[in-house]
Amino acid sequence: MDTMTITKAGGAVCGALLVFLLGGWAGEGLYHVGSASHGEDHAQGYAIEVPEAGGAVEVVDAEPEVPFEEVYVNASAEEGESLWRQCASCHKLEDGANGTGPYLYGVVGREKHQAVGYSYSDGLLATTGAWTPENLSAFLENPKEYAPGTKMAYRGMADVEDRANLIAYLATIGG
């Protein structure tokens, strides 16, 4: 390796750095949304005038959520099978075959943290009892809230019917 090769490599690095700096500067100039550079005449959004409310505002839910137990009675395992695809990337249905998550063979009704060979997080180990349909529903709705510190990265399944259908499908596997 001679001096010219080192000089070319150094120049390439400096050139790439210059391109990134100029690109960042140009992007900031085009897309900057701060008010400091535009003065007070330039608005960032639209102001909507709202007359002062004289009384209390009543918030009404559009549709109250049906309790899980009522939905689970009519759950469809066939519809739950299509929802299983979301879980299949981390869990397996074969008995004893752990993936990123524990195997779910016979999970409905099984005692918690009983998947042989799986290393549970402290958050999940802190929970007790069995994986009843109600417990599974609460966990699937918001895993981080149900078991703070859980390793499960899933953000949750908000729809109560989807949770009921998925649990109905899992209930048909093993057990």
From TrEMBL:
Keywords: Electron transport, Heme, Iron, Metal-binding, Transport. Gene3D superfamilies: Cytochrome c-like domain. It comes from Jannaschia pohangensis. This is Cytochrome c. Residues 75-174 form the Cytochrome c domain. Coiled coil: none annotated. It holds the Pfam family Cytochrom_C. GO terms for molecular function: electron transfer activity; heme binding; metal ion binding. The keyword Iron applies.
